[in-house]
Amino acid sequence: MNSTTSTSSLSLAVAVERERRKRKNASGDAPSAWLSTARPEQLPPLGDWFCWYIQAGRGWGKTHAAAEYTWEMSKRAKRIAIVAESFGDGRDYCIEGETGIKTLHPDLDWHRGYGEMTFPSGAKGKIFSAEDPESLRGPNNYFAWCDEIAKWRYLKQTWDMLMYTMRKGTPRVVVSTTPKPYPFLKEIKGRPNTKVVFGKTYDNIK
Q1: pTM given for the model
Q2: What is Dmax (Cα atoms) for the chain?
């Protein structure tokens, strides 16, 4: 049975996690603005998991949540894959969009022509297109952001190729997508190491 998360079940756990992080940062590092303003369900789940699956409508803030988590993970994941429907979508939404990584964190060293980036920690990131699953062949990745996975042209092939690159360390994946009733996506959401968050567009305007 998968771990499906609602706002009500997250609230207490996230409040505890926020307090833990604030205390951890008391030595000098101020908590991020996102940690202070995000809704509970927009923060990564607690516990041991591999995939955080965010399924929500437009305007919910799934790109913002995934971008902020990618930034946070860059502090300990030395290589990051950002997989989008196309190279252009990865560039225009995940990096340069209104809530893209470069927009939120100008310190990102971004080379838009190559789709490559270097985070302040030294971690390397690269955009990959789901139009070309074979492009994922190469170095290992320790974290991945899968954007709009429901729109991927070669869904299973791209996912499988990505998984081949994530076999070392303790890798994690965040998925940000609008819903589609595809059997393979249902399978991913149903896995015991997946945490699923469902959201609606109006959640962000309550």
Answers
A1: 0.86
A2: 47
